[in-house]
Design goal:
The structure is a single chain. The protein is 39% helix and 17% strand. It is an alpha/beta fold. The strands form three sheets. Strands 4-10-9-8-7-5-6 form a seven-stranded mixed sheet, with helices on both faces. Strands 1-2-3-12 form a four-stranded mixed sheet. Strands 11-14-13 form a three-stranded antiparallel sheet. The chain is globular and about 60 Å long. The chain has two domains: 154 residues, Aspartate Aminotransferase, domain 1, CATH 3.90.1150.10; 234 residues, Type I PLP-dependent aspartate aminotransferase-like (Major domain) (Aspartate Aminotransferase, domain 2), CATH 3.40.640. β8, α8 and β9 form a beta-alpha-beta unit. α3 packs parallel to α10. The structure holds 4'-deoxy-4'-aminopyridoxal-5'-phosphate (PMP).
Length: 403
Amino acid sequence: MIDLFDKHRPILERLSRVGPDDVNPVGVTNERMLSPTRAIINGRETILAGTNNYMGITFDPDCIAAGEEAMAKFGTGTTGSRVANGTYSLHTALETELAHFLNRRHCIVFTTGYQANLGMMSGLAGPRDTIFLDADSHSSIYDGCTLSGAKLVRFRHNDATDLDKRLARSEGEEGGKLVVLEGIYSMLGDRAPLADFVEVKKKRGFQLLADEAHSFGVLGPHGRGLADEAGLEDEVDFVVGTFSKSVGAIGGFGAGNHPMFEVLRYAMRPYMFTASSSPASIATSLAAVKKLAAEPWRRDRLRENSTRLFNGFKGLGLDMGCDAVSPVIAVKCPDEASTIRMWNALLAAGVYVNIALPPGTPNKLCLLRCSVSAAHSNEEIDRIIELFGQVVAAHHGKKAVNA
Ligand code: PMP
């Protein structure tokens, strides 16, 4: 008999390479949350620089009150799918608010952002269709593609010319074409060159979906994401987003203007065959989205903090994931072993960042990934820079990490 677990042995071998005194980077527990930017980890107060809590809204008193009130009024869970007993007035109120915020005619809320991608991709594309994916797409986009049964064509990351070439090759094929991009890419923090892709769209014709998971609430004059920042919202047919980052809760959405959009509610298995998000989470998200609309100072503060960290790292000579400032700031490291060592040294010194290793990274990069929050104080940002400086110097001499 072949043990079904045999295929997972390489995972255990990899985990065994973590040193005896090291913390397992994928097994960190926040013992207590002190604020959006501080937690007790391994018994000590730690600055959090890897939470995706972009607006630092998780401890906002209005959001907490909205969640508490909803739990008291509607209970702890919905115990049902949106197409059965799981649609509460809260879900429809959030969909209305989001559609308004996004300036889109339709919006559908999902239980997670992962399911939003699974649902939207498999609802839009079927076995006759082709999905053109940026090679660096998030796993939920790849999984959505698998679920759809559509033909998958990958194009080079952020390369509109490569997309154009691949579309040219598929000219005359039957079925629709869906192109999928992300606003801010989660690993390196770079943005899609949307204007270039829109040029290709005008030439070749396809429907375009933007996953604004890391840019929703963050980019653009209205906080609607990259398309808002680029002034190209009319060219993006469908938007996907999550509540697990700038909204500080859990859930996701898909939105668009297509007159038949609502039919997706009856065509998306990840929407139909799972329980809807809990009343507390939906009410919290609703309060947070209202704040994103009413309090643009949060975006300004996030931009200031991101610029401060970016410039600080530049000053240290670190090799960063991209040249543009965004709240995702990744530092390239030479190899897996030194990345794990530096990650541990940072944690021991009092700062938590994300570690990102192949195969989860583009071009097999080893990364120490920071995400900045509007709630970080200048002192916290400066401390993160100082600790990176110390750790890099200790591991590589005074020189920068030249990956
Ligand atoms: N899309 C992208 C680009 C993401 O980075 C993520 C989460 N990291 C998701 C979708 C899924 O979001 P959620 O955490 O809400 O499932």
